[in-house]
Amino acid sequence: MSCILNIETSTDVCSVAVSEDGKCIYEQTDREGPNHAVKLGVFADEALSFIDSHAIPLDAVAVSSGPGSYTGLRIGVSMAKGICYGLNVPLLSVKTLELMCVPVLLFNEEIEDDALLCPMIDARRMEVYAEVFDRALRPVRDIQADVVDETTYRELLDKHKIYFFGNGAEKCKHAISHHNARFIDGIVPLAKWMFPLAEKRIALGETEDVAYFVPYYLKDFVAQMPKKLL
């Protein structure tokens, strides 16, 4: 187990948490945003002070990598990389949509074994960023920008119950009327739910290159650039 500073800024909510030995031991959340530029530095500084005051060695920083708010992700990733550089600790990335599944699995025991999970982040109009997972968090369908109508998930819905959640799902309820569609309200990506996925990244040695890591929305752009230009 490790001590990890977790940073989540992919939506209007700004949150920071410290996890140790597989549990959250400190958290701060601001839901009045977007106030990331104002709140995140304060939250991160106070979290680091908490770690220092308890004499806990910091093993890594985990950051939510998107998809989500361009500005929020940029602020969160910049803060995470700065701390990693300053303290010489590894950087971990957690996909926002995967993160959103954690509280759903923890607090909804009635979900069927063969059901699928579809977290959604609001994009614009009827567009959402969405990914589909099974209950073991294995991707069934990778991240896509979906323009949602009654046919968007029909092929999967004909075979499985699908639980939709996140701020994208809230605006799509009227468009997804299939009898296998289920909706869970109130799911927001928060730093305090990042630690199971961050711990897994550490165990597998899946750290990021601090110099070249970018949020989700810049990955394709950076992949096409020569490294010497970065």
Order of helices and strands: EEEHEHEHEEEHEHEHH
Uncertain segments are 221-230
End-to-end distance: 34 Å
Count of alpha and pi helical runs: 7
Give the strand content: 25-35%
Radius of gyration: 18 Å
Number of strands: 10
Helix content: 25-40%
What kind of sheet is the major sheet? 5 strands, mixed
Tell the overall outline.
Answer: globular
Mean pLDDT over the full residue set: 92
* Structural class label: alpha/beta
- How are the strands of the biggest sheet laid out side by side? 3-2-1-4-5
Descriptive overview:
- With 230 residues, this protein is of the alpha/beta class.
- It is 31% helix and 27% strand.
- The protein is built from seven helices and ten strands.
- The strands form two sheets. A five-stranded mixed β-sheet has the order 3-2-1-4-5, sandwiched between helices. A five-stranded mixed β-sheet has the order 8-7-6-9-10.
- Strand 1 and strand 2 form a beta hairpin.
- Helix 1 runs parallel beside helix 2.
- The C terminus is likely disordered.
SSE map:
Blueprint: E1 3-8, E2 14-20, E3 23-30, H1 36-53, E4 60-64, H2 70-87, E5 91-94, H3 96-107, E6 116-124, E7 127-133, E8 139-147, H4 154-157, E9 162-165, H5 167-170, E10 181-184, H6 195-204, H7 219-223
Parallel strand pairs: 1-4, 4-5, 6-9, 9-10
Antiparallel strand pairs: 1-2, 2-3, 6-7, 7-8
Helix pairs in contact: 1-2
